[in-house]
Amino acid sequence: MAQTDKVRVYGKAQNRTALGIIHAWALAYPNGTLEDLRAAFPNSLNPDKGTKENFILSHEKGTEANWDGYFKEPEEIVLLQDGSQVSVVKMWTKPSFERIVAKAKEYGIVVAEFTEAEKGFGKKGGFRLEYLNGWTPPVAKKKCTCCWIWLLLALIAIAAAVYFFCFYGK
Question: Strand 127-131 vs strand 85-88: parallel, antiparallel, or unpaired?
Fold first, then answer.
């Protein structure tokens, strides 16, 4: 484990581990957007995915075929700070999985040896995250969209004070 490692992903099945990597990225970069996510993990990492994009908004249909190709269950959706709900592609071949694991290391995300998911109807793998080296997820910075209103009100108050002082203060 390196000093710069932030999160370790434990997964059952490589596609669920890939999903865990993306959840870890969203925690590490709380102000990240869908475009930031796509830049961090570009489509070139997973050319065999069978879909156009690695990530889509969860309400979008992934393909024209009957197979949607994306994780869509509520616990699988990646929620970004801007409110975007993102679905991650399900198909990760061994070479694509190895590429996303290597790319994740650039962001301090490491992957533990994944274990096979239990076989059988209704059984699916999962993932869990472990924070490393005392790291905790940063809090998303709130954008101050109303700062200009406070500035304008302060200027009006100052102008009113100057007006009353100049004309009525004597």
Answer: unpaired
CA dist., res. 141 & res. 29, Å (int): 11
pTM over 0.85: no
pLDDT exceeds 70 at position 119: no
Domain ranges of the chain: 7-131
> What strand order describes the sheet that includes 85-88?
55-57, 85-88, 78-79
What pLDDT is recorded for position 67?
A: 66
Residue of 82, 35, 88, 86 whose CA lies nearest to 59 = 86
Given CA atoms 53, 59, 63, 64 in this order, what sign does their dihedral have?
negative
* H helix and E strand count, the chain: 4, 6
